[in-house]
């Protein structure tokens, strides 16, 4: 009798563990991310170039994740380029190949300038950064 009781108890325990386990694997492929940057100068002279050092920080790793960048300039005029000198066209989408990278903004006007950077992954999650540059006359420098 005692033997059957132990068999019954063990069977219930195994059934309880089997029911507690789910056959659905929780595999996430759309991790969140942020984009961090070092401090960027606030004043710029026409023709001067400001360096923007950036790092993509991913909350998780998934090998098929892709990240893209686009920029828009709501104020002023300027040119944005990457480390290799390739100039970005406003509002075009560019794939990020590196997680640590630099951008170079060159002022083409004497007015205040603002650039907005939009980073998006292949799941539609988006992070935005905005940089403003005040006009600095050469005699102030």
Give me some keywords for this one.
141 residues, 1 helix, four-stranded antiparallel sheet, 13% helix
Please give the radius of gyration in angstroms.
Answer: 26 Å
Q: How are the strands of the largest sheet arranged? A: 2-9-8-4-6
Largest sheet: 5 strands, mixed
Task: Please bin the fraction of helical residues.
Answer: 10-25%
Q: What is the helix tally?
A: 1
Shape: rod-shaped
Protein architecture, described:
The chain is mainly beta. The strands form two sheets. The chain has a five-stranded mixed sheet with strand order 2-9-8-4-6, with no helix packed on it. Strands 1-3-7-5 form a four-stranded antiparallel sheet, with no helix packed on it. The chain is rod-shaped.
Spell out the blueprint of helices and strands.
Layout: H1 2-20, E1 33-37, E2 43-44, E3 49-58, E4 67-75, E5 78-82, E6 94-95, E7 100-107, E8 113-121, E9 126-135
């Amino acid at each position: 009798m005692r033997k059957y009781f132990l068999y019954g108890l063990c069977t219930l325990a195994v059934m309880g563990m089997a029911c507690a386990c789910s056959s659905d694997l929780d595999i996430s492929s759309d991790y969140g991310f942020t984009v961090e940057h070092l401090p960027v100068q606030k004043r710029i002279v026409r023709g001067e170039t400001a360096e923007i050092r950036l790092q993509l920080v991913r909350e998780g790793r998934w090998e098929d994740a892709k990240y893209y960048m686009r920029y828009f300039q709501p104020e002023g005029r300027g040119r944005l380029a990457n480390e290799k000198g390739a100039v970005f066209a406003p509002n075009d989408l560019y794939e990020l190949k590196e997680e640590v990278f630099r951008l170079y903004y060159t002022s083409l006007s004497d007015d205040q300038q603002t650039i907005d950077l939009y980073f998006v992954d292949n799941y539609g999650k988006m992070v935005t950064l905005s940089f403003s540059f005040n006009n600095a006359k050469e005699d102030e420098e």
